[in-house]
């Protein structure tokens, strides 16, 4: 069998890697290369954690991904995964998202534990816990070095015989029945096609995705840490963290890594974004909003300047769940879409699943079926619990 994978973000690269290992003839195409700055998988780092409320499919797929990330990290010459743990700061009244996660995390052999506020304060003296109601710690969690991960998956894929092409693939959705997918002026001949183009998916396949996905603009900041304090802000002292807050955007962060700074960002889907034409420059009001949150939560960072920023995008489905579906005009074209701001960690788990779908006739889990989006009640708990605030604030501009 020959498979053409279009897009070498973490999803496409993982699919290519798993299929190639099974002896499939795989060609992997990307406009600018794996983990490029404009892709959803670009940038330095992403959080990996198992807590997903009752949406057990994500806990399972993340657990499958861990083994891959650990091995890739071990095999690569550079560190790709830092198991520093994950701290959940619950400042809203409702901690059911974490409560529901517990049994699923335990079912894969790991744990999430409540820590008293006084113990947390002793252990993490840089955090202000005043308005936090509950604190939980996930040990099996940490940070993935995002862009590096993608490059290393593709490096392995190539080492193991896979073919990589750099440039734009043209998909003509109106002629998809005749496999109208081309590269460099020629039709790509393959038995199956995987379209995994993240925020560009809906441009390639507007008929399929226009009404069920949207692209949101996200800002990421790295703050300088005091010159004498690296040991208080790096991953030996601090885990990744997320402030579960239904009234404000849920801020989250990754401790000092890759000598960049103390990373902070927010989970909010408020402004739409065009991955080709939108400027990637932070908006002053959002910078100020983040600074005021940071100063409250990490008071010792008050007056610390920003050392680096990024503007990127989420490719969202309307309910926060992934979309994995054959195109209705051509059941040789498998579309992976809607990673919704939480898809990095699961890349390898998803790649393995797609490999089983294509060569072992495994069913695509119903959670990922595009048909569910006709039903308003299907939102993932990730979306409902963590993104409640954003749901109210989402702007379709
Ligand atoms: C700020 C931010 C923070 C995030 N935090 C987390 C986190 O902590 N944990 C987590 O798990 N996830 C997180 N995510 C989400 C995660 O990064 C994404 O879900 C994931 O990287 C999406 O990967 P992808 O492969 O679907 O898409 P992409 O990485 O966007 O890959 C798509 C690829 O397709 C290529 N392409 C597009 N069009 C064409 C074409 N016509 N021809 C050829 N190639 C093409 C592009 O060049 C690109 O490389 C975050 C995302 C952002 C933006």
What does this structure look like?
With 397 residues, the protein is of the alpha+beta class. Helices cover 29% and strands 26% of the residues. The chain contains twelve helices and 20 strands. Helix 1 packs parallel to helix 5 and helix 2 (56-75) packs across helix 10 (347-359). The longest helix is centred in the first third of the chain and has 20 residues, at 56-75. Flavin-adenine dinucleotide binds at residues 6-12, 29-32, 36, 39-41, 46-47, 168-169, 196-200, 204, 218, 220, 265, 312-314, 339, 341-345.
- In the CATH hierarchy, the architecture is 2-Layer Sandwich
Within the CATH hierarchy, at the fold level, what is the topology? D-Amino Acid Oxidase, Chain A, domain 2
Q: Summarize model confidence as the mean pLDDT.
A: 93
Listed once per kind, the bound small molecules are:
flavin-adenine dinucleotide
Keywords:
single chain, 397 residues, alpha+beta, eight-stranded mixed beta sheet, six-stranded mixed beta sheet, 12 helices, globular
Which helices and strands appear, and what pairs or packs with what?
Blueprint: E1 2-6, H1 10-21, E2 25-30, E3 46-48, H2 56-75, E4 81-82, E5 86-90, H3 96-107, E6 112-115, H4 117-123, E7 134-138, E8 142-144, H5 146-159, E9 163-166, E10 169-171, E11 181-183, E12 186-187, E13 192-195, H6 201-204, H7 206-209, E14 213-223, H8 230-233, E15 240-244, E16 250-257, E17 261-267, H9 284-297, E18 306-317, E19 323-327, E20 330-337, H10 347-359, H11 381-386, H12 388-393
Parallel strand pairs: 1-2, 1-13, 2-9, 5-15, 13-20
Antiparallel strand pairs: 3-8, 4-8, 5-7, 6-7, 10-11, 11-12, 14-17, 14-18, 15-16, 16-17, 19-20
The chain binds flavin-adenine dinucleotide.
